[in-house]
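hey so u asked for the seq, here:
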Amino acid sequence: MMTKTLSMIWLATGLVLSGCVSSGTHEQTLAELEQARKVAAQQAEADKARLADQVARLAALERDQSKASNDLLATQTALTASETELDKARAIAEREQDRSRQLREQMMAAQNENRQIQDLSGEIRRERDLLKTKLDDLQRQLDTTKQDLNSREQVLEGTLARVTALSQKEQDLVDAVSAAQGEIRDLRTKLEAERTQVSALQEDKQRLLGGTTTAQGEIARLQKRAGELETEAARAKDLEKQLAERNQEVGELRHSLADRDAVAAALATQGDDLKRTRDRVDQLTKELSALSEEASRLKQERDGFSAKAAKAEGEVDLLMKDKSTALASLETQQKELLRLAQEKAAKEAEIKRLAGTYEDLAASLRSEIAQGDVKIKQVRDRLTINVVDRILFDSGSAKVKPAGLKVLKQVGDVLKKITDKQIRIEGHTDNVPIGVGLKDRFASNWELSTARATSVVRYLIEGGGVTPELLMAAGFADTKPVASNDAEEGRSQNRRIEIALYPKDLKGIAEEIQ
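ran it, structure tokens below
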């Protein structure tokens, strides 16, 4: 426009210089020139203001870019911190695994020792049962031996009584034999004397055969005496026979005494065996008591090992739970790290794509941006296209002007390539109420802002080829001003259409806003 004004000024100057105009025309031309100069001066001031505004917007874009870089750096720092935490969690998990492995080995050693103790306890029980069986056998043998010993003692007592009686009888017989032997000796002595006397008498008989009657009487007496001597001799033989019988009885008694000595020796031997058996029983009893104490001690040790094993199993279970918790936490951290990495990559890709969209829009709308009719702003994964209403709509109208259609066509060519964003068309107004002449069409700025947003959405769908599912329209009237409504310049900035590109994940947006 400034170029056109300058051309008019040069044309008018040429006409004046060439003298091709009248005086009235000259004055009119000068007036027009003055008016054109004023318009050119105002346009220059406006261009200067737009240039300052563009410089400010460039500075704001640089700040936004710096902020986006800082946000990206913060995300990278958070990712690095997450990786550090993950390394720490891995180290903790490895330590827990080592501790769990050590406790498992200790538990296995305790189980092996407990198994050995159980085997030893089984052997001790078997040996104890065997000793108990032997002890029962020995006890039965001891009882049998005691009964046999009692029987033998009773037999011995009877035998000793018989031996005592036989000894007394033997002594009586010995005394009787001694007396009989004395009598026999006396009788033998008398018999020898009588025989000697008989021999003398026989000799005398022979001398006195022819003697007197007195001699015959003496002979008769002597014969009578010889008969008595023969009777005494027969009696001596009977005594000798009785003595032989007594000697035989004495021999039998002596044999019985020998049997008694043998029985006494056997009893003495059995008494020794019984004593040794009792000593052996006492020794086995002591050994059994010692084995019982050892078994009790081993049982206590086994119970102690069982308690330790139970405690170790409890610790292992606790460690396994801690390990499971740590692994679950590690897995959660890994998933979170993976999610952060994916989000980071997605955000970087999204920011990169959005930067490409920003560059495409900036290149397509370069002249409108230069004139201040369009502003483009990118904050991380959000892109906002701010179009002032004068380029899109006439005052009080919701119909897009031809110049606005050209702008929207350029915007639509870029937006129809986007498939991963939600596109919201927002209508905004200043705080000036709707005039009386427009009340029949728009009751308030709410209806006007909503109608304008809807018109832009309709064109982007029908003329721009943008996917309808990605579009939404909203009217905000004068509730979200970007400048003060006290001056015309501020009100001009507030009358706008904003095309905002948001990620589809509204939940993520809400979380980030919180």
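The longest helix spans residues 23-207. Residues 107-316 form a domain with the Helix Hairpins fold (CATH 1.10.287.1490).
lmk if thats what u needed
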